[in-house]
Amino acid sequence: MNAITAKEPILIIGAGAIGGTLAASLTAAGEHVVAVDGNAAHVEAIRANGLVVSGVRPLHVRVEAHHPSTLVGAFNRVILAVKAKDTEAALATAQAHLAPDGWVLPLQNGLGMLAVAAAVGQERTVGAVIAIGAHYKVPGQLALLGYGETHVGELDGVARPRTHEAVALLSHLQPAELTGNILGHAWGKLVLAAIYSATALADRDVPALYDDPEACAILAAAGSEVVTVALAERAQLEPADGLEPMRLLDRDSLAFGPDDVWSGQRAAWRRYANTRTGIWRDLAELHRPTEVNAMLAPVVAAARRHAIATPCLDQLLALVRRAEAHEIALGSATFMQLAPRTNSRDGKPATAPF
């Protein structure tokens, strides 16, 4: 294992799938990382044995790890890498330990970057959106199973020196790109989040679902509702890990075939050794609450403000809540409860999205 360096430390709040693999990659590159996590067993394992990453880039590094209550000091660079449902608690840690001239980079699903900007100021917030195949295994151990894409940008679209620094730091995990439309990428990833939430209910491999016309019709219904809300919010949607969200509103693109709306996602999943999402792992293996409500409830709230109906998202959120409470089992019967909101014969939403 490496020795901890004397460089100015980077604080990473959340040492799970994303934060932990980033911490390991930065440490391997010679950066001094301080990781803080609310999982006491995970922190103790990292302290005792280092942080172990298996998969496409095996790493075993020594990382300074803390519980939130034992963390001391102020940091100029803070990366917030917790699940969307844990943003509020993580923000309290970030605010308590952010240096006066420091910045926070939220690396999360959903629109957490807006919550961060509201808490610490837009002038101290750098946005980022990541897609990557990684998951938490057991305390002290993570799996990195495939590379996706990372985009970094300022909320006002104007790149600054810190933006370029953030791109360089995140590129130690996988190549990162500078963007002038980070909110467009966040909304694009939210479209994918709705789709992935639906795949978790099916209890089937994601690539298999993309080869099933009936399943694709359900997934299109979930994703297209997010697209409609994003457009009402005046977002300029960007692609997310091979998915072009606007194609979900194009009936020709929804016609099932090799060049349909799902073709980019099929290619993306061929890069990953895993075949299911982190949402599925939370429900089926870890038996813990997901971040689905934290990601998608704000989308539904925005829809209400614009008088947009979201029947598929409403049902999706209700089913995920029941699955989290162990009231229903994952599988076809649960997944198909979304089906009445689609016309499965042609893979198109039953009603036009506008």
From TrEMBL:
Q: Which residues form the Ketopantoate reductase C-terminal domain?
A: 181-323
> Please, which domain of life does this record's source organism belong to?
Bacteria
Q: Which InterPro entries match?
A: 6-PGluconate_DH-like_C_sf, 6PGD_dom2, ApbA, Ketopantoate_reductase, KPA_reductase, KPR_N, NAD(P)-bd_dom_sf
The protein's annotated catalytic reaction(s) are: (R)-pantoate + NADP(+) = 2-dehydropantoate + NADPH + H(+)
Q: Which GO terms describe its molecular function?
A: 2-dehydropantoate 2-reductase activity; NADP binding
Q: Which residues form the Ketopantoate reductase N-terminal domain?
A: 10-156
One GO cellular-component annotation of the UniProt record comes to: cytoplasm
Q: What is this protein called?
A: 2-dehydropantoate 2-reductase
Query: Organism source for this protein?
Result: Chelatococcus asaccharovorans
